[in-house]
């Protein structure tokens, strides 16, 4: 088992204080957005096995079956199939969607054929993998997820009484819901020039007025977007999406093509090992509207918070069930008990509260403070997990 040294990504949307607080560090005054734990080549974790820190992806590449187990390699290939993160948005993260596996493979190959560098700012596909994801709130966490029903979205937009929104509202009257949503999103993202500026300005003013009259009403979540992204068409696109508020311990699963944006809070995120993002707004980064519209799943949804369920045969472990095998997220709330982890699958353990201790079968001890994590290779041996007033998340695969 290895204690991991992880990278914090300083995206502009990150909170200045949330990740330093989790990690027990002094804030730098700069935004700190994502803590990465895993073997993605963009920012792999490092582990020291007595010869100095080494990249986790390199350790795995040197002995895939020894690190990941034969079953994981046979099913998912010789790389760690998942990436674990802590997200800390201080301002909204871009409205985005992620491709399916087939779309990612085709897009990655096409951009490679065009000779677009992997780090080019206008590149859409940085790898050939899909990016389904699961987020679990560590406190109150709110975001936008999935499309509202067209009639609901039309009523919300019309309620602002902004004439410039009529080109977005009109498509929502289509009988076919998929056609209605695709037409509305295309119209919102197609606004341009002075007309777009006026539409966004008038929408922001109307949202501010409505939220002041009803601070808990449906427009209130959008005041944060209007404040932090003045003039951005993503404000209008965001009104097409459901607002979701998660409480601590509640989770949300997002499959391919589901449009979403995270607004504020801190969460643990577990996803497939990918960094493919198609953006729709609320960002200075590259936006490819035609490709986004090709990838998005135009279907209304009613996202409900996902609650953990007890795991049979593993007392004290609670699982967040998802319809995918490349990652599996569970949680231990320790109050002096001893639990067993380790086994035939690779895993990363993250302590988000208190202090936890790992003890291997041969007596090796590894202590994890709040914000620290460890990689357990798939060596088939049990590892004891103990702690007092500690919360530990377990990221692994389903074999």
UniProtKB/TrEMBL annotation:
Chain ranges of the Phosphomannose isomerase type I catalytic domain: 3-148
Cited InterPro entries: Man6P_Isoase-1 (IPR001250), Mannose-6-P_Isomerase (IPR016305), MPI_cupin_dom (IPR049071), Pmannose_isomerase-type1_CS (IPR018050), PMI_typeI_cat (IPR046457), RmlC-like_jellyroll (IPR014710), RmlC_Cupin_sf (IPR011051)
Alphabetical list of Pfam families matching this protein: MPI_cupin_dom, PMI_typeI_cat
Domain of life of the source: Bacteria
Catalysed reaction equations from the record: D-mannose 6-phosphate = D-fructose 6-phosphate
MF term (GO), any: mannose-6-phosphate isomerase activity
EC number of the protein: 5.3.1.8
Name of the molecule in the record: mannose-6-phosphate isomerase
Organism of provenance: Kitasatospora misakiensis
